[in-house]
Amino acid sequence: MSTKLKIGILFGGPSREREISFKGGRTAFEHIDKSIFEPVLIFVDSHGHFIEIDTEYIYADSIRDVYPSKNLNKGYRLYIESLGDLNDTQLYKLIYKIGKQIKPENLAKTIDIAFPVMHGPYAEDGSIQGVLEWFGVPYVGPNVLASAIGINKPFQNDLLKKSNGQQKKSKIITRKEWDTADRSAMFSLLTKNLGFPLVIKAPHQGSSIGVGIVRKRSMEDFSKKMYQCFFQQVVSQKDWIKLTKRQKKNILEKTLSLSEGIGFPLVLDEEVYYHPGDLLKALDVYLKTKEEAILTSVNAEEYVLIEEFIEGQEFSMGLIQDDKFNVYALPPTEIYGEIETFDFKSKYQSEVTKKRIPIDTHLENLKKVESLGIKAFKDLGMNVICRIDGFVTPDDEIIFHDPNTLPGMSPTSLIFKQMAEIGLSITQSMNYLVRQSIAQRINEGKHRHKMQQLLKRIDAAMTSAQQEKRKQVAVVFGENEVEYATAQQKFNELAASDVFDPSCVCAAKNGKHYLIPVNLMYKANIQDFGQAISKGKHPFVQSLIEKTEGLRAKYAGNVSFEVERIEESELKLKFDVIYLAASDELTNV
Predict the structure, then answer these.
(1) I want to staple 405 with a disulfide (CB 3.0 to 4.6 A). Which of 142, 188, 363, 536 is the partner?
(2) d(Cα 533, Cα 537) in Å, to the nearest integer?
(3) Which of 31-45, 345-359, 402-416 has the highest mean pLDDT?
(4) Which residues, at least 6 apart from 22, have a Cβ–Cβ distance to it below 8 Å?
(5) Do 389 and 314 contact (CB within 8 A), yes or no?
(6) Strands 198-201 and 211-214
(7) How far, rounded to the nearest angstrom, does the alpha carbon of residue 281 sit from its chain's CA centroid?
(8) CA–CA distance, 294 with 227 (Å, rounded to integer)
(9) How high is the pLDDT of residue 342?
(10) Parallel/antiparallel/unpaired status of strands 5-12 and 37-44
(11) Which residues of 396-429 are buried (b: 16+ CB within 10 A; e: fewer)?
(12) Is the pTM of this model over 0.70?
């Protein structure tokens, strides 16, 4: 009988960030420690159904490629909500094309632990956490309270102001105010009171969905960003009548896309339209007599948050706890490059955005970011893990914003790069997330005995996995971009295996071989890898390594941070298997 714990990876969900969550589910599935956990893939659709699916589906490019089935799309790539109100029989047929439905009350019979890899409303706001608590399902991540705070931007601002005294000017504009105001006067008053440029945010979204910066002193730019954050789209008569049917369809296909558009269903003149084909016909009729059509998402925001633009170095920093609930800051990542704002597209779809660890500033600023970040974590009621963004201003002031309780789950996510800086791989970081979450559930006193027994099982499984003898693998890569990227992927794959224990070896251009520590295997590219070696350990990062020694020992064991020379002849003596990135081959020694 298997002693592995069944961990349900919950991904997808109803929010606009479901595609990012879909990819995050793949990351969790591939990198979860297979020596401890047996992953169960549970896709959560946009109607809230829990569907256990086969592995093949998680490798689709998009949710729309597998659910709903393509023969229902009528010429568009649809999400299931565009099929309208489906009855139970219709839903049953769609669900059982890709898997089997699990009722929430039966989740505890199917899995030992739930690992939500979902973002935005219904996922990061405490909703899914509340459902899991109600049905007694242990789950990974912060609790209901922290999640609710982590999705409410205006409330966060109030708490951050109380935490560190930061002065960030802001204003809330309701939809009613927007619809009835003299918008030119509103724009002038906002720029007078908040300065220019203006930052406009949808208040209850994650992944920088619904974030825009008004950089032009024009009503057109201001209105465009306001509509974007209200999740509205304006279609003008003069533009629409010039378009061909194909061009109209292209516009609505872009509207369907959750990374570019506001998504369906949409409301036009109090009528809800689920399918873009139906909306196209309605717009043709509506715009014969109207100068413009305002399309509004059924999940639109009721107000937007407008903030002053902060000049400074932008950063993102993870914060974690140990099992005694001490809080540690991870090395903050500076985000820079030719970008308008660190929005959804620049986070997930741009190659322009650059990152460096830590922020390029003096040591006292870094210490201030660390201490204020830890204080904010505590003051905002965060637990287990949190990512907080912010700025270091030219006057050395630290301004925080947007605490996030479920950081992105991709192999290139900032949180994993920061965990690597203190010596943990993606797989070891996930072990931390799972175990610390159960410790947090015990601390909250809900289902306490059950959680204590579960923690004992996790600890026993971790101990057994650490003692088990595995094949030692040398992942050998050359000093070039392709082989470095291949080695990164292979190292992560093998680290999650219950058979192999990988180490990375660089076959350098000087003809020598070097053992590479884990922190150097999470750089963005081979150039950053080389620079990190030449610069050595930053003193601030070194201080964090020392502070997290106990936590690292628990999840990663004895970790070296030094690049060590190894003779090529020693490779066959030290390792059982050699993987060559250049040829993508595993060879038994």
Answers:
(1) 142
(2) 8
(3) 31-45
(4) 11, 12, 58, 62, 63
(5) yes
(6) antiparallel
(7) 37
(8) 9
(9) 46
(10) parallel
(11) ebbbbbbbbbbbbbbbebbbbbbbbbbbbbbbbb
(12) yes
What are residue 247's phi and psi, to 5 degrees?
-65, -40
Contacts 24+ apart (CB under 8 A), 447-454: 447/136, 447/138, 450/136, 450/138, 451/138, 454/5, 454/112, 454/113, 454/138
Residue 409 or residue 179, greater confidence: 179
Token pair recorded at residue 96: 């059982």
3-state class of 95 per DSSP? helix
| Three-class secondary structure assignment of 253-274 | HHHHCCCCCCCCCEEECCEEEC
Instruction: Render pLDDT for 434-446 as a digit per residue (tens, 0 to 9).
Output: 999 999 999 999 9
Q: Which two tokens stand for residue 383?
A: 């637990």
Query: Is the preceding peptide bond at 197 cis, omega within 30 degrees of 0?
Result: yes
Q: What stretches of 151-244 show up as alpha helix (H) in DSSP?
A: 153-164, 175-180, 183-194, 219-230, 237-240
Rounded Cα distance between 317 and 422, Å, is 13
For the record, the structure tokens of 123 come out as 């996922």
Distance (Å, whole) CA 508 – CA 568: 11
Question: Which pair of tokens denotes residue 462?
Answer: 């971790």
Which residues is 585 bridged to in the sheet?
Answer: 580
To the nearest 10°, report the CA torsion of 561, 565, 571, 575: -20
Structure tokens at 25: 């589910």
Give the pair of three-digit tokens for residue 269: 């003149």
Residue (of 414, 426, 430, 431) closest to 331 by Cα position: 414
Which residues pair with residue 503 across a beta bridge? 474
The amino acid sitting at 166 is Q
- Chain-centre distance of CA 357, in angstroms? 19
Q: Map residue 60 onto helix, strand or coil.
A: coil
Q: CB count, 10 Å around CB of 446?
A: 15
Q: What span, in angstroms and rounded, lies between the C-alpha atoms of 366 and 570?
A: 41
| Alpha-carbon gap, residue 423 to 495, rounded angstroms | 13
Under a CB-based contact definition with an 8 Å cutoff, are residues 33 and 2 in contact? no
8 A C-beta contact, residue 505 and residue 513: yes
d(CA 15, CA 3): 35
Q: Of how many residues is the chain composed? A: 589
Instruction: Report whether 157 contacts 170 (CB < 8 A).
Output: yes
Residue type at 183?
Answer: R
Distance CA 123, CA 130 (A): 10
Cβ atoms 447, 136 nearer than 8 A: yes
Query: Is the confidence at residue 532, as pLDDT, over 50?
Result: yes
| Closest to 158 in 3D by CA, of 147, 172, 143, 142 | 172
Q: Which region, left, alpha or beta, applies to residue 73 given φ > 0 means left and ψ of -120 to 50 means alpha?
A: alpha
Q: For residues 170 and 195, is the Cβ–Cβ distance under 8 A?
A: no
For residue 348, what pLDDT band results from cuts at 50, 70 and 90? very low
Q: Tell me, what's the pLDDT at 523?
A: 95
